UniProtKB/TrEMBL annotation:
InterPro entries: XTBD. The lineage of its organism: Eukaryota, Metazoa, Chordata, Craniata, Vertebrata. Belongs to the CARF family. Residues 24-116 form the XRN2-binding (XTBD) domain. It comes from Octodon degus. This is CDKN2AIP N-terminal-like protein.
Length: 116
């Protein structure tokens, strides 16, 4: 009956993943493309266990959602943030693969080229 137990365990795992994805869906912004949302949802789901709100509140989930937006805004829109914050979100996103990420030139890079 080992096969039946493995199938039941797999079904439970798939159900848990589906529930987590359904939970995360409520945080999708109407302006996010499918590609952006897929990447940000992966970021959220990866760290959700560490950022669940404690019973007394505390806003840990809000913090995770904010970090996910910082990462997505930096990646897809070229927004800049403090070095410490970017280091944190880039470390949290390590291993999340996004295809065809836009390339941005910062104002500082443009100014350096212009001064040369």
């Amino acid at each position: 009956m080992v096969g039946g137990e493995a199938a039941a365990a797999m079904e439970e795992l798939v159900s848990g993943v589906r529930q987590a994805a359904d939970f995360a869906e409520q945080f999708r912004s109407y302006s996010e493309s499918e590609k952006q949302w897929k990447a940000r949802m992966e970021f959220i789901l990866r760290h959700l266990p560490d950022y669940r709100d404690p019973p007394d509140g505390g806003g840990r989930l809000d913090q995770l959602l904010s970090l996910s937006m910082v990462w997505a805004n930096h990646l897809f829109l070229g927004c800049s943030y403090s070095k410490d914050l970017l280091d944190k979100v880039m470390e949290m996103a390590d291993g999340i693969e996004v295809e065809d990420v836009p390339q941005f030139t910062t104002r500082s890079e443009l100014m350096k080229k212009h001064q040369s």
